Every structure is written in C-alpha cells, then in structure tokens.
Amino acid sequence: MNGEMNGKPTQGMRMQTMLAHYGEETFHGAVVPPVFMNSLFTARSYDEMKGPGNPFRYSRISNPTTDALEKKLAALDNGEAAKVFASGMAAISTALFHYLRQGDHVVCSYPIYGGTYAILSQWMDRYGISCDFVDFRNPDNIRKAVKPNTKLLLTEGYSTMFMDVFDIRAVIAVAREFGLKSIIDNTCATPSTLKPLDWGFDTVMHSLSKYLSGHSDVIGGAIISDSETICKLTEIEVSLIGASLAPFESWLVNRGLRTFGIRMKQHGQSALQVAQLLANHPKVTRVNFPFLPDHEQHALAVSQMSAPTGLLSFELHGGELSVQRFVDALRIFKIGVSWGGFESLVYATAIGWQHEQVRGTEYEARVEGLVRLSVGLEDTEDLLEDLEHALNEA
Ligand SMILES: *Cc1c(COP(=O)(O)O)cnc(C)c1O
C-alpha cells in the first residue's frame, strides 16, 4: 500500500489501520473530515483558473470528499487510483463505454449480476457490441469463446446467487494469451477476501451499496485501476456520462469503510455457522457456500479467497411452496433485494430473477428452490434460531 497518512507513508499498514486514517487530511484537528457540499470551487486569480493548479473545479469531475474516498478505495484494492460513481451500475456501464468500441466482443461469465447481464445481453447490441456468456468454472470454455474481435473478459470474484467461484488464474492466463483486457466485479467477494489486481486483473469494479458502505443507506459504485486508465476514464467517460457520486454519499461510504474489516470478520464467522446448520438439515438439498470443506469448489475458493463473507445460498426440498413457507416463517431475516448491510436479509430466485440467463443450463432446475441469505451483524445465536425455526416450518 503506497501513499501518505498525515505526511507519513502507509507502506506495510494493515487494512483496518489504513481504513481508519488513510487519505484523510485534517481540518482544525477534526477527527472526521467535513463534507464538501460544493458544486464548484473558485480560483484566486485568472492564472490559477487557467493553469492546472487546483485539482477541484467542479464536482461532476472531482470533489475533496470524494477524493478522500477514492484514495482509500484505491489503497484497499492495491490499485493506483479509483473513481467513484452514483451506483454500481454506473461504474459498470462507464467501464464498458471506456473499454469498448463498435464491433467489439466481450466474453462474460454467467450467472452474472442481473444488471451486467441486461446491459451486455440486450443493450450494448445497439452500439454494435456483442457478448457471449460462458461457464467460467471450466477455463476451456473461456478460451473457446474468444473471437478475433474479442476485447474484454468480464467476470465476478464470487457470484451473487449460486455462489460460484471462478478460477481467476485461468481467466488471467486467457487474457494474457489473447491480449485481452480483464475486468472483475468484486462486489461479492470484496477486497477483504480477494484482491484481483494482485492476480493481474486490469480493473476492478464494486457496488459500494453492499459491504463497502455496509449500512444500507447509500447507493454507489467504484472502479479501481492504474492511474493512466482512471485518468483517461475521468477525462472522457466520467465527464461525458456524469454519473458521479455526490459528496454526502462519498462521506457515508467513507464512514462505513472505517469498520469494514471488522464487519467482514463478523459476517464471515456467522455465515460459516449458518452454512453448517443448513448443511445438517434434512430439508436442505444443497448449500452453496464454498467454505464448507465438502463443497465441490472448496479447494479453488480457499486458494483465491482469504475468508468467507456473509453471503450464501441454499436449496430446499419441496420447490417454491417450501421456499415460501420458509421465507414467511423468518422473523429476523427480512425479505429484500440487495445485501451486505448490517441487517440479515433473505431472497429467493423464485420470487423473481432473470431466468433467461440460465435457460437450458444445469442452473435452470435450481432456480425454483434457491434461497439466498445475507447474514447480517445480529447475534449469531439469534440468527441460527430464526433459521432453524423457519426450516422446520418449510
Ligand atoms: C448490487 C450489485 C451491482 C450493482 O450495484 P448498484 O449499486 O445496485 O448499482 C453490481 N454487481 C454486483 C455483483 C452487485 O451485487
């Protein structure tokens, strides 16, 4: 980790220490930096305005509160620079506009986050950009899908519904072999468990709305990459598309980050206990949590990810009716989309999901009985009791 902390380098600083202090200038000794609620910044002279001097002119492009967050996010992913956006989808679409031109082709893993699937399967087509979705669990599929006009490989560190793990060494090997750009959506694994830039990815994207902010009170996104990429992206796509994160939202994410490492430990510990409970329950046919030793992707998962997060799914006997009974019997887990906050949530693919994404694949039969849990920060015992009770009702 490079950079400055009150003038001192942060080299060697561990994650929670960096998150507590890095990238924050002090103003009057304030322990919490202020929110710069400014659309614009004035210059003291004609020459200062004309010259490159002041990095802050207009908050669509940059703002000191946003800048502090960007420094921290770049350090967190061991990247050179970061840019934040009004949502995770704004980050993804801006990155696609940055990397792709008319006639280009993308190879993307599936099942992938719904918004990413929608933008690449239907919408980019308008601009002459095509995409093939392949199963990245087998690296041969990736290699076979590469065409002469392929520019980009896009994947996730850990997928959001079925909790698949993709072999990131293999993805990088294919990218290098064919000279392709590689992007990873690391929202689900998070930089507390996986640092894709260290493995050779060109660019990492995140939704900040999940674990990074952690309090279910903000929507945001981020792109982390080398300085040159972030600089070009800021000059062109950020300026033209303008999906910037507002100062107050940036401040909220920064506040959430101060406890990120501690929250992730607790989410992961509780999720492991939840997974063990589910694995031993007769109504559960399958637990999608690669940190259980008998999961088929366990070896790959532990070779890439340093710890579990709070996100997992499982599959119930008895189809949608059983899923409905289970969901309605829960008391602490609330029914909701999204995840990664302090609160425990439940969602089921039978409630609504992009079924067309998996039509004709082995995943199709699993959609009806799949339940996803975002294990929150409540006391683990309460969560286990809630699940046990609801499973008995299912
Ligand atoms: C939530 C999510 C997104 C989209 O982020 P928003 O902040 O909701 O726009 C993208 N990718 C993944 C994996 C997500 O979970």
From TrEMBL:
SUPFAM superfamilies recorded: PLP-dependent transferases (SSF53383)
A GO molecular-function annotation: transaminase activity
Keyword Transferase: yes
Family: Belongs to the trans-sulfuration enzymes family.
CDD domains xrefs: CGS_like (cd00614)
Domain of life: Bacteria
Keyword field contains Transferase: yes
Regions annotated as coiled coil: none
Protein name: Aminotransferase class I/II-fold pyridoxal phosphate-dependent enzyme
InterPro entries: Cys/Met-Metab_PyrdxlP-dep_enz, PyrdxlP-dep_Trfase, PyrdxlP-dep_Trfase_major, PyrdxlP-dep_Trfase_small
Organism lineage string: Bacteria, Bacillati, Bacillota, Bacilli, Bacillales
Keywords from the named record: Aminotransferase, Pyridoxal phosphate, Transferase
Reported cofactor(s): pyridoxal 5'-phosphate
